[in-house]
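ARCHIVE CARD
Drawer: 12
Card no.: 0347
Subject: one protein chain, sequence and derived structure
Cross-reference: see card 0346
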Amino acid sequence: MVGVCITVIGIFQVVTTLRSEDSLGDDFLAMNAILYLITTLLSYWALRTSNVNRNHFLEKLVDVLFLIALTCTTAIAGFITWAITVH
């Protein structure tokens, strides 16, 4: 998912450069990529921990954060589409 965010940031930069305008879409995607990284690191930590209570807590946290990141990805895709088609 981070790779998708980075690819879209690159494409979005090309489009905004050609149009000589700026948008917040690439900034949102960069923050979204960081959120995916956080969920990956927390998931890895949950797999490695020997504390059962910590494992269950991290699993629930990762599930919630990953669903938030997926929702943000969809919202950002809509935002970028709207920003590109408005002009």
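Annotation on reverse: The two ends are 28 Å apart (CA to CA). The CA atoms of residues 45 and 78 lie 32 Å apart.
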